[in-house]
Amino acid sequence: MHRKTLSALTLACAMVVTPAVAATPAAASAKPSYRSCYDGKCKFTFTKSVSFRISKKRYGFSRVYVSKEYVGGIFDQDMVVVRAPGSTVSLGEGAEGEIRINRKNALSFRVLAITSQGATIRFTG
Questions:
Q1: Phi-psi region of 62 (alpha: psi -120 to 50; beta: other; left: phi over 0)
Q2: What's the rounded Cα separation, in Å, for the pair 83 and 95?
Q3: Domain residue spans in the chain?
Q4: Which of 24, 47, 57, 83 has the CA that lies 20 to 30 A from 99?
Q5: What is the pTM of this model?
Q6: Pick from 77, 64, 73: which is nearest to 114 by CA?
Q7: What are the residue ranges of helices labelled H in the chain?
Q8: Rounded to a whole number, what is the distance in angstroms from the first to the last CA of the chain?
């Protein structure tokens, strides 16, 4: 075989065997930012409990806690739980809910999907 052909084959074999670690974007390992949720409008997928700040002036409270929890008893399934000071809402997949405190604007949300790894939720303000 020619030297160039042999070099090309060696390089091709090395690329197939070597895992594509360099192709993983740096942002995938970075902590997600929920700054876009401050106005009460965002969509995200989570795998563990999260909390983020929202506009206290608009909604009457400044922090929201979101988690996926197993709810036994009547429901007997995984549900998304949204908490705010003095209020807790548990929702199954496809359900919609809202939290309203002190006669301010309601923070509305919808559970888009629940999987074994986590869930996807959309806040619509």
A1: alpha
A2: 16
A3: 26-124
A4: 47
A5: 0.73
A6: 77
A7: 3-17, 56-59
A8: 67
pLDDT at residue 102, as a whole number: 83
| 99-116 pLDDT per residue, tens | 998 888 999 999 999 999
For residue 47, what are its two tokens?
């795998």
Sheet-wide strand order for 87-91: 50-53, 63-71, 77-84, 87-91
As given in the structure block, the two tokens for residue 79 are 């549900």
| Dihedral Cα 94, 36, 88, 106, nearest 10 deg | -90
Over 90: is that where the pLDDT of 21 sits? no
CB 68: neighbour CB atoms within 10 A? Answer: 20
- Write the burial class of residue 103 (CB in 10 Å: 0-12 exposed, 13-18 middle, 19+ buried): exposed
52 phi, psi to nearest 5 deg: -155, 160
Structure tokens at 34: 């929920």
Residue in the structure block whose two tokens are 């604007």 = 105
Q: Look at the alpha carbons of 30, 79, 71, 50 in this order and tell me if their dihedral is positive or negative.
A: positive
Whether residue 15 has pLDDT greater than 50:
no
